TrEMBL record:
This is Ubiquitin-like protease family profile domain-containing protein. GO terms for cellular component: nucleus. Keywords: Hydrolase, Protease, Thiol protease. The lineage of its organism: Eukaryota, Viridiplantae, Streptophyta, Embryophyta, Tracheophyta. It comes from Prunus dulcis. InterPro entries: Papain-like_cys_pep_sf, Peptidase_C48_C. Residues 1-148 form the Ubiquitin-like protease family profile domain.
Length: 191
């Protein structure tokens, strides 16, 4: 399991355990215990590796508006036209996949679709907080998906907060207490 898969699994699991957060608007392809079925979803959040650039972006696939939104933490890396060209196969594949599984006949949101599902879906880059170094794109993707799926604004998703988010992810992955983690890593926490 890759670090992105593990991070997304832990986000889903934590959101399921929190009563305040309702995860009724996103899905995964394998429907683990903390996921949901396709028929009940209207948004799909997915990490996407642009291998040519070795760069992660987050995708929000809106099954009602029939569009794909790209959350890119480093827009200066890939020009808009190239990004859309690289993701263009999704704008064909996703509608065909949904048609194959009769999504628009069986889905609760079928009548709300804003365009004809068989048209090419537009790909739109969203204005989001940007990373200030070369290595944070994976963590930004995890935080974008976590916050968007919980309908929380992305304002806290900044380069300054990435060390804290990484710390919390390590804690979550290892399942250990703050004190034990500080002892293991010699991290000094300010009071």
């Amino acid at each position: 399991m890759s670090h992105i898969d593990l991070g997304l699994y832990l986000i889903r699991k934590r959101q399921q355990e929190l009563e305040v957060v309702e995860i009724s608007d996103w899905t995964t392809t394998d429907v683990p215990a903390c996921g949901m079925s396709w028929e009940n979803a209207y948004k799909v959040y997915a990490p996407c590796m642009l291998t040519k650039y070795k760069h992660w972006v987050a995708l929000m696939i809106d099954l009602v508006k029939c569009e794909i939104k790209v959350y890119d933490s480093m827009v200066s890396l890939i020009p808009d036209e190239i990004l859309k060209e690289d993701l263009a196969p999704l704008s064909i594949t996703i509608p065909n996949l949904l048609n194959t599984m009769d999504f628009y006949e069986e889905s609760f949101y079928a009548n709300d679709c804003s365009i004809d599902w068989w048209c090419l879906w537009p790909i739109k880059r969203v204005d989001v907080p940007q990373q200030s170094n070369q290595g944070d794109c994976g963590m930004f993707v995890l935080k974008y998906i976590e916050l968007l799926s919980a309908e929380i604004p992305l304002a806290t998703c900044t380069s300054q907060n990435m060390p804290f988010f990484r710390y919390m992810m390590i804690k979550l992955v290892l399942g250990i207490s703050n004190l034990k983690l500080m002892q293991l890593s010699n991290i000094k926490v300010m009071k």
